[in-house]
Amino acid sequence: MLWNTLNQAVELGWDFYLPVLIFVALCALAVPVWASIGVAAITMLLMSGDLPLALVGESLFHGIDAFALTAVPLFILTGDVLVRTGLSRKFLDVAEALTQFAKGGFGSATVLVCGMFAAISGSDAAGAAAVGRMTIDRLVESGYPRPYACALVAAGACTGILIPPSIAYIIIGLVLGISASTLFLAALIPGILILTSILVTNIVVNRIYGYEGGGNLSMGEYFSNLGSALASGWYAFIVPGIIFYGIFSGRLTPTEAGATAVVVTIIIGFILGTLKLADFPSMLISSAKVNGIILPIIAFSLPLAQALAIMGVPQGFVYSITALTDNPTLLILMMIGILIAAGCVMETTPNIVILAPILKPLADSIGMNEIQFCIMMITALGVGFITPPLGLNLFVVSGITGESILRIAWRAVPFVFFMLIVVLMIAYIPAISTTMLPDIYK
């Protein structure tokens, strides 16, 4: 079996290995990911001769000429407007009022507001930056060590791609031809489980080390404080309400929900007086910069994915892996290991575009539901955001606090452990990701 696997690997030849080496080398030299992918794709096409180079430009255009992708800039812009109008702080006030009675209350509130922000922006890095600026100093004042406070925000922000609506699910749906609305519905329970695992981890760690005490409140005081927070910030929940109701009721597509959310958030900002016309240029530039990272990666990844498909890499990968073992349990563990390792060293978008077409045939070979595979893949990649050496959220919170990445990563270990438990549950219990779906998808 091992000999067959080695033979299959050798048969790919330099048409495959040289572009891969070029890609790795360019990434190591800090060349932008989209450029690294583009150079690797063009090299592969030139060496193999399987696809005319003249079609690369057409592939680049068609890679981003998709209506579903218009939801991506809309959700990013919504998150940016949310921060600038101060609505994200209203989320924090309500989350803090909900958890004020508990030991580790403000830590739990921080995780909840990460989940609330994720339900609007669909971006983990934006959530880590926005929530980190609001909460890390207060977490330290509450008794948490700064590295742990950073790790808590980094872990909570992972929900940005795990709780719908999520940019990652829009992209994987585009790559594999699956409705984003269906993936959003399937991701609801897994997203809540991930959020719960982070909450539970913080509670357990807080009880062990006693970072933050609980509030000594009577029931009357608790509900009075909660009522006051809701009364002063209820309008902030109009935006996620529109997104969730519109998408899950089927009345709005993700793109329509994103557009509606942008308009409503802007209107609320004008009514409150927290948003002015002068804010628009910087706000649009900020959102455009984020889109300028995501969309070129998608565009340049498509020719690479086509070249890999023509060369038979996905089929060869399935053959190689199944030659080692045909045990579904072990194959799932291998896939999870590959995804977490990839999530540690590369951002979600290129991982999805490159790995999804390669790993899906392996999932198909063991009878895994395609929706379940998508949820497992995105969740496993999400764990990579707080795993060294290149966990994106670690860099974000380190950048806004100046704290050492290694110190943050060490404190993030408990969160990684509990999140991995949820990933395994999703991988081995199909009902977690298919319960909310119509029978046709199960």
TrEMBL record:
Keywords: Cell inner membrane, Cell membrane, Membrane, Transmembrane, Transmembrane helix, Transport. The chain crosses the membrane at residues 20-46, 66-87, 107-131, 152-178, 184-205, 226-247, 259-278, 290-311, 331-359, 371-396, 408-432. One of its GO terms (cellular component) is plasma membrane. The keyword Transmembrane helix applies. It is a multi-pass membrane protein. GO terms for molecular function: transmembrane transporter activity. It is found in: Cell inner membrane. Pfam families: DctM. Coiled coil: none annotated. Residues 21-432 form the TRAP C4-dicarboxylate transport system permease DctM subunit domain. InterPro entries: DctM (IPR010656), TRAP_DctM (IPR004681). Belongs to the TRAP transporter large permease family. The complex comprises the extracytoplasmic solute receptor protein and the two transmembrane proteins. Part of the tripartite ATP-independent periplasmic (TRAP) transport system. This is TRAP transporter large permease protein.
